[in-house]
Amino acid sequence: MIKTFTQKVHKLSTNLNILRIVKLILAASKKWAFISILFIVIESALFYSSFYMVKVLIDMVSKHGVGNLKDEPLVIKYVILAAVSTIAYVALKSISSYIIEKQSAKVTEYVDDKIHRSAIELDLSFYESPEYFDILKRARDMGNDRPNLIVATIIDIGKNSINLALITSMLITIDWRLFPIMALFIIPTLFVRINFADTQNILRLSQTALERKSSYFSSLLTLDTHAKEIKSFGLGHHIRKIYVDIRLSLLDARLKISKRKVYQEVATSILATSGLFCCIAYIVIGSMHGSTSIGDITLFLIILPQSFTVMQTLSTGIATLYQNNVYVKSIFELFDLKSSLSEPQNPQSIPNDKNIDLELKNISFTYPHSNRPTLTNINLKLPAGKIIAVVGSNGAGKSTLIKLLCRLYDPTSGSILFFGKDIRNFISKDYQKQICAVFQDFGKYNVSAADNIKFGDIDGKSRPEIDVIEAAKNSGANLFIDKFSKGYETTMGRIFEDGQEVSIGQWQKLAIARAFYSPSRFIILDEATSALDATSEKELFNSLRDRIGNRAALIISHRQSAVKHADYIYFLYEGQISEHGTHDELIALKGGYFNLFKNTSL
Ligand SMILES: Nc1ncnc2c1ncn2[C@@H]1O[C@H](COP(=O)(O)OP(=O)(O)OP(=O)(O)O)[C@@H](O)[C@H]1O
Prior knowledge:
It is a single chain. By secondary structure, the chain is of the alpha/beta class. The chain folds into three domains: 11-212 and 260-336, ABC transporter type 1, transmembrane domain (ABC transporter transmembrane region fold, Up-down Bundle), CATH 1.20.1560.10; 358-434 and 523-530 and 552-602, Rossmann fold (3-Layer(aba) Sandwich), CATH 3.40.50.300; 441-519, Rossmann fold, CATH 3.40.50. It has helices spanning 2-15, 18-28, 30-64, 72-121, 124-127, 130-141, 145-174, 178-222, 227-233, 236-288, 294-323, 325-336, 398-405, 428-432, 449-454, 465-475, 478-481, 504-517, 534-542, 544-548, 560-563, 583-589, 592-597; strands at residues 358-365, 375-382, 387-392, 413-418, 421-422, 435-438, 522-526, 552-556, 568-573, 576-581. The strands form two sheets. The protein has a six-stranded mixed beta sheet, with helices on both faces. Strands 2-1-4-5 form a four-stranded antiparallel beta sheet, covered by helices on one side. Helix 3 (30-64) packs parallel to helix 7 (145-174). The longest helix is centred in the middle third of the chain and has 53 residues, at 236-288. 33% of the residues are buried. The model has no long low-confidence stretch (mean pLDDT 84). The site of adenosine-5'-triphosphate has 12 residues, from helix 13.
């Protein structure tokens, strides 16, 4: 048992990340961390000094007996001192609860911000990995209160450690044997609690994926994203049942552990209470033999419940910290994740030259966790100022190609050349600014119409409002924005009180306006007009060249009307370019491109 306990203690100290947590607390606010420590030390010192003065008083009074007034001024002095330190302790205790709250709030904000910063820095591959979502879920599960709890627990452990040291020194002044007797009876409680926390952590880790699944099914029922389908297919109760079954299995596993803990806690509580009474018996018998003074007995009786509470709270604190360790670890795991996109040691600056081509050279790409290449040996050129189209059936790899062009992923082999240089020579953020894309699953931001467009150039804060209107006109979004009483200041979507829901096609026009507003050199439209009515789409593509200015564009579309105006077209088949040429050349070729469109009107 002792060996297991030592192993547990070792595991505890290495697993708890105490040093890292302390560093995190200091990073959140050094000032408040030091103030907290100062208050803890003073508070504990005052608490125990008032106890000690009571002991001295009682010893003084009992030694001199009734009617002896010689030491009266000294007695009064000690009474005043004990009163002052008790008053100071009470006042300090109230202030320190505010300080702990302040300190915890600082840590919460800091952790929250750091989680967001980490998420911003990660590349797209993380967002497509279940492992990342498990880490993120656990980190997010920290909730806003957990950092508070952790800080408060650490402070509590600090406070109780100081208290324990003071109690030990006081117990030693009475009889040094009292401390090991008490410790011996309390240690099993700590052992049980750590063991329970450990089992709970293992369970929590193994349950993360299932927890995420249950959150997913809950969100299907509660969020607006699937409400229409779920109601029209009558899926509600079916999904609710799946959710309930998952929750029950999670709860069942958790309750089994808790039940075991209850039995063990009862046993250790009996043991600890026996320890307490052993100490009482020891000291009382000691006083009967005259080896302990009245003051000692009084002090002992005052600090006995304290020492008992201190040791119990200390073990609870350590167990709580251990229990929360799984969340803390996930936070640190998240902070430690590094983008898989490498940044150059000596980055090259983006050239000002207007005529810059983008070229894919022998590109092959396999998704992480996949064993099949999605793209093989792709050669494609996006010359400055030209409109290029990529066409292919579902799953051919068109969107993947765009992810590579946007440097959301790096190719497995081959290179993407910007101005003749591999894009990995540029800082990824600088390069990404050169390209803007309207994705199939474009963003619908519940902010004003103007901000929806301005998100295309978040650094261009001082740009004139006319640019926003110009971008909206070019995408056709102005047609519905102008009808709102608040115009461009109207909040889009119905999530917020004053929001205005718009149709999917109108959302898409906003997304296209965002791309037009962007100062990037290349525009990518990936099925970006799929929800537009035929007239709007025709108007957009008929004059696309005017709308995008002197920029180059890459269009992906399943509609012939959208791609036929392109200067050059690549036909993608199962991840490879099987045909390329102008629209007329490809039609004349009567190959894949021709077959894809042969049943649709031009
Ligand atoms: N994150 C991913 N991880 C693994 N495989 C993926 C991932 N995303 C896409 N794929 C696979 O890559 C292939 C190409 O997908 P992609 O989205 O590029 O096709 P697409 O040509 O754009 O299709 P569509 O016309 O339907 O939009 C598909 O077989 C798909 O299953």
